[in-house]
Amino acid sequence: MTAAPPAATAAAPAGPAGPAPAAAVTPTFRANVRRRRIWIVFGVVLVLGAILMLVLRGGAGGAGLRLGADNPAPLGAKALVEVLGTHGVDVTTADDFDTALTAAKSGATVLLFDEFGLLDEQRLGRLAMFADRLVVVEPGFTALEALAPGVRLAGAASGALDDVACELPAAERAGALSTGQRLFTIDEEAVADGWAGCFRDGEYGYALATGPSSGDGRLVLVGATTPFENGRITERGNAALAIGLAGASDELVWYLPGPLDAAPDQAPTLGELTPGWVSPVLALAIVVTIAAGVWRGRRFGPLVVENLPVHIPAGETSVGRARLYARSAARTHALDQLRLGAIARIASALRLPRTSDVAEIAAAAATATGRDPGRVRAVLVDALPSGDHDLVRLASELDDLERAVRATLAPETSAPQAADHPGRRP
């Protein structure tokens, strides 16, 4: 009696080292850097450009409000305000006209710095009328026309100033001012009205002008913010002048007009309210974007000058898509594509209707092959690859399951059943 042939051929031993590990397809760090190097270059250029802009604008000197009472930056005035507080001066900050006017009526000294020229002539005149002492820092053309018609701007000083040239107590105590001052000229009519200049720069003009206001008070015009700034107040006699002017009374109103103080027809534009570094950075970003487009585009016009028939084999499409999946490490997406194809072929082999869902197809495949239904469903749906090795293993199990389903439907699978009944004719 001849022994029956074995049902399956034993698999060949894998060898002492076991099966060879699957090659890793996850992009390495070096590959990711190489693929994204253009964006890294753009980022570095933008960062360097921003740093260059900050250096050109004086580093962090532009942070906070210029001459702000609570601004510790070099262009702020927090140091002066704290010194005044230690000398018994009650400093009140104001950013609207009504608050400053109320304080002026009560006898407080008002220090006005209208950087953007928000106050019109009418409000400047009312403030000068009711203030006993009004100190205007870096006045513009509108302020000079409203407060001191005979005083004009005369440009920047040639250097440090030590010629006091007036009898103002604060100026006499200061004795000298540092560089960075702006000058005024005073015409004969203004001199006749009682205006005088301090800290003369030869024949060019004065860094400070003082005279009567429209009321009973006194006006002091300081050409530059330099004597009040944190970064320059300790130079020469800047501190003595700033303390003498701002601390002339026990109460001081530090008034920096805000947007609500602007007249409706004279409101500042968006460019005036935007920090100075925004425009250069935007311009740099536009230039870099255009340069990148030209560089990466390499050429202008269509890539193909004629409409040529192109035939791409399906194998090349599959390989190209697989490489894209490998480059982006999209293991789950790649496995889903394999599962969709396998599920469709298994359903077709088992003659299942098109309306069958995945659960029904998995149950039918498990019944046909005699495998565990839970494992079949895991291979077709549930299992997720955690790495390249799992992806290769699940793909191999999908192929094995599809082969097993087709093997159960092959004609030779019924031969052993016919041999068990010799009287039956095949």
Task: Quickly list its features.
disordered C terminus, 426 residues, alpha/beta, two-stranded antiparallel ribbon, 9 strands, seven-stranded mixed beta sheet, disordered N terminus, rod-shaped
Structure report:
- It is a single chain.
- The chain has 426 residues and is of the alpha/beta class.
- The chain contains 17 helices and 9 strands.
- It has a 7-stranded mixed beta sheet, sandwiched between helices.
- β6 and β7 form a beta hairpin.
Task: Describe this structure in a few short sentences.
The chain is an alpha/beta fold and 426 residues long. The protein contains 17 helices and nine strands.
Following the backbone from N to C, one meets helices and strands in this order, namely: HHHEHEHEHEHEHEEEHEHHHHHHHH
Annotation field: number of helices: 17
Question: How confident overall, as mean pLDDT?
Answer: 83
- Biggest β-sheet, characterized? 7 strands, mixed
Taking Cα atoms only, what radius of gyration do you get, to the nearest Å?
43 Å
The best one-word shape is: rod-shaped
Strand content: 5-15%
| Uncertain stretches | 1-20, 414-426
Report, as a whole number of angstroms, the end-to-end distance. Answer: 22 Å
**Strands, total number:** 9
Spatial strand arrangement across the major sheet: 1-9-2-3-8-7-6
Helix percent band: 40-55%
Specify the structural class.
Answer: alpha/beta
